[in-house]
Write a structure and sequence with these properties.
Length: about 140
């Protein structure tokens, strides 16, 4: 994602364009995996940003639908651009923490089944699913 696209995204979301927001979204848009706040605090362009400011901006981006928050059975949350690679799920190694995107999703039948069986919901809009196991390296 180019800086001009990020600026447009921020403006269209009703957010002020700031250097911190630009740096944060630029880094998240180029990341190959979901990142924690600790990961983001190591980014050169974000070194001077305090943790509270970082969390506040991430929370704003989540509320605006720009990024998504992932709870991967860890102490900390992870973040990635919303549907950067289209709808996908994750496989997480429980030993080393390796995260791999899984781009196939055959949940349509399950979603329809949930909609039919729910007494209080008429429509499922989105879902998330993570798989946990051991990567090939840790399984040896």
């Amino acid at each position: 994602m180019h800086i001009s696209s990020i600026k447009t995204l921020l403006r269209e979301s009703g957010l002020k364009v700031t250097p911190i927001r630009l740096a944060l979204l630029n880094y998240l848009s180029k990341a190959k995996k979901p990142l924690s706040v600790e990961d983001l605090m190591q980014v050169k362009s974000l070194l001077e940003v305090d943790k509270v400011t970082l969390y506040r901006n991430l929370d704003t981006f989540v509320k605006k639908g720009i990024i998504q928050r992932l709870d991967l059975h860890r102490r900390e949350a992870y973040f990635e651009m919303q549907h950067k690679h289209g709808h996908h799920h994750h496989i997480i190694c429980m030993e080393c923490g390796l995260i791999e995107d899984m781009h196939s999703c055959s949940m349509d039948i399950a979603v329809k089944n949930v909609e039919k069986k729910s007494k209080k919901f008429s429509k499922i809009i989105d879902h998330s699913m993570e798989f946990y196991g051991l990567c090939k390296k840790c399984d040896k």
